[in-house]
Specification:
Blueprint lengths: L3 H7 L16 H6 L4 E2 L12 E3 L2 E5 L8 H21 E4 L11 H4 E4 L11 E4 L7 E2 L2 E2 L8 E3 L9 E4 L10 E8 L2 H5 L5 E8 L5 E9 L8 H12 L10 E2 L10 E2 L4 E3 L5 E3 L2 H11 L8 E2 L38 H8 L5 E2 L37 E3 L6 E5 L9 E4 L16 H6 L7 E6 L2 E2 L8 E11 L2 E5 L6 E3 L4 E2 L4 E2 L2 E2 L45 H14 L17 E3 L5
Parallel strand pairs: 1-12, 3-11, 3-31, 11-13
Antiparallel strand pairs: 2-4, 4-19, 5-6, 7-8, 9-10, 12-13, 14-15, 16-17, 17-18, 20-21, 21-22, 23-25, 23-30, 24-29, 25-26, 26-27, 28-30
Length: about 600
């Protein structure tokens, strides 16, 4: 029997003209340009509340370039679906008081009293006459969301002058997300950019309280649930600027007895920067089936100075993770165990780890998997050599053997952008070439390495081809090609098909093992159906984003949004997509 692993890597492959583009996240660049207001410990400190799913209040900022009804419906449905997912995964310690953001003293104040012996030490001594409002990544924060501020002209007088009165705050919210659809300069200069984010406020324990997600105006039709989750995870704390503020809450007393973790990122023996925290280390050791103590969470090293840290996982080691610098497209990004373990180790969240999606890349491959020394030596079927057509590692798509700047010279099979979806019936063409290879497209079709050809052809080229498959047990399945009967396909082996020359090679531990991997229309609902427990923020100002009261228009929006989201491939929700919990606010920002 021919080795499946050897064939995956060593046989020549057909070159392809189809390419995939790199949709790279710019979070670190954006966060570095964003001023963060950090709360100081109030007196008295608020009493701790219950630990419950995070409530994310969303404020949709106005946009001059009005969205069409279809675009608006897509944004609303996509964001709402992402919020439901995050709310089902992360819980926080709630407080009973409304969320009220701090004002930035560096904006409203000209100077602070710095003599520690004075009554008004560290208080504002003189107002900045040019102070107008607070922003979060260029989005104007409503005054009603902000605490008040005052000026104390005399160093030792308790009498102050109110500069801004406090707003009412936002009740029943643990995090405020300011959502902005905008044709920004960053969007215009980077056409492949879909969205970007930053956090702008943290509480006394370092947990982010507010952030912004900017959706590029011209990318609305390409927006996916995974993109929103990725950016929201950044805003909630997956950020190199916050790694040093993570807290150790390992005691049984939970959030009430936490201590600073200090520095959590260090370089391993090869110079790879990693996060070394208990949950992250355990998650990666389980994933790779290795106990090497250097197996911390690997961070991206591309475009990062020596000794520097990234806010993304290393692409070579964690393909498919939701938190890569260039997350997988076509619904292939996974809310993986390592990412959720990192949130657990922040000390700010209780995480529903059991709801993590399966990460297939590198599973069980050992401690040396993904290193630049081993990715070229044919030791792992997850990497490829040369250039040609094969199968994406999830086997839902045909792939092309490629590298990119994030892979440090390693090559992988990247999903083809056009026509590579095996599960898409419309991709089934009637050309003589495909009939020679016996391809069949449809919901139950998957990608297989194959050199099948009809009896009257003698050219054998191994490439990725789409055939029907049927599960008969864990890691057990049958295959059917054009015009054939169902044939048992032994995992790790190969089969011949009557009426064809050549072989079909059967992937091992890739098919019929994971219920959360499949075509978008068949993907199992992994996450709970609950909605984020956050209110719709009130504002009577007319806006282009306000849902139509006309039932026919509302129905049309819901249908178009649902159709647009079929390609996303994350969880679906039973709740009606038109009941979004997003506030619309008009006005230029």
């Amino acid at each position: 029997m021919v080795s499946w692993r050897g064939l995956w890597l060593c046989l020549p492959l057909l070159c392809s003209e189809l390419r995939v583009s790199l949709h790279r996240c710019i979070f670190d660049e954006v966060q570095a340009q964003t001023r963060v207001v950090r709360a100081v410990l109030p007196s008295p400190a608020p009493s701790p509340g219950e630990v419950a799913p995070i409530r994310i209040g969303t404020w949709l900022s106005g946009e001059r370039n009005r969205l069409s009804e279809r675009e608006e419906g897509r944004v609303r449905a996509t964001v709402e679906r992402a919020l439901r997912t995050v709310s089902s995964l992360l819980s926080v310690e709630r407080t009973s008081s409304p969320l009220l953001l701090k004002r930035d003293a560096n904006k409203y104040c000209k100077f602070l009293w710095k003599n520690s012996s004075t009554v008004n030490y560290n208080r504002c001594g003189q107002a900045n006459k040019n102070y107008r409002h607070e922003t979060c990544l260029d989005v104007k924060i409503p005054d009603d969301h902000l605490a008040g501020c005052e000026v104390h002209p005399q160093a030792n007088s308790t009498r102050g002058v109110v500069l801004r009165r406090p707003g009412a705050g936002v009740p029943d919210v643990d995090f405020l997300l300011y959502l902005h659809v905008q044709a920004s300069d960053k969007c215009r200069t980077q056409p492949s950019l879909l969205a970007y984010a930053a956090h702008c406020q943290t509480d006394t324990k370092g947990r982010p309280l507010a952030g912004v997600v900017v959706i590029c105006r011209d990318s609305v039709t390409r927006l996916t649930v995974q993109t929103v989750i990725h950016e929201l995870f950044h805003a909630l704390g997956f950020s190199k600027d916050l790694f040093a503020t993570w807290r150790d809450c390992s005691t049984e007393r939970g959030f009430s007895a936490c201590s600073p973790r200090g520095k959590v990122t260090h370089a391993d023996g090869s110079g790879q920067m990693r996060i070394y925290t208990p949950s992250v280390i355990s998650a990666l050791q389980r994933h790779l089936a290795a106990v090497d103590p250097e197996l911390g969470g690997p961070l991206e090293n591309s475009d990062v100075p020596s000794g520097g840290v990234s806010s993304h996982w290393e692409s070579r080691l964690l393909q498919g993770s939701i938190m890569l610098a260039a997350p997988s497209q076509f619904g292939a990004a996974r809310v993986d165990p390592l990412t959720l373990a990192a949130f657990q180790d922040t000390g700010w969240y209780t995480v529903n780890i059991s709801q993590a999606q399966n990460l297939i890349w590198g599973k069980g491959e050992g401690a040396l998997f993904g290193s630049t020394m081993t990715c070229h030596d044919n030791s792992s079927s997850f990497f490829c050599t040369g250039s040609g057509l094969g199968c994406h590692h999830l086997h839902l798509h045909k792939g092309e053997c490629q590298t990119d700047p994030l892979l440090d010279g390693c090559r992988i099979y990247k999903a083809l952008e056009n026509g590579g979806e095996c599960w898409e019936k419309e991709n089934e063409r009637k050309s003589s070439e495909e009939r020679q290879g016996g391809e069949v497209f449809g919901l139950d079709s998957r990608c297989f390495f194959s050199d099948l050809t009809t009896l009257n052809h003698s050219q054998f080229i191994v490439m990725g081809r789409c055939y029907r498959h049927k599960c008969t047990g864990p890691n057990r399945y049958q295959v059917q090609v054009l015009g054939s009967y169902w044939v048992d396909c032994p995992a790790g082996g190969s089969i011949q098909i009557r009426g064809y020359r050549g072989s079909v090679f059967c992937p091992d531990e890739r098919l019929c093992l994971y219920s959360d991997i499949g075509p978008p229309s068949e993907i199992e609902n992994v996450f709970p159906n609950g909605q984020p427990d956050a209110p719709l923020l009130q504002d009577d100002t007319p806006s282009a984003y306000r849902p139509s009261a006309d039932p026919s228009v509302t129905t049309a929006l819901c249908v178009s949004a649902a159709l647009g989201l079929l390609v996303v491939g994350l969880v679906s929700s039973r709740g009606p997509p038109c009941k979004v919990r997003i506030h619309a606010a008009s006005g230029d920002v």
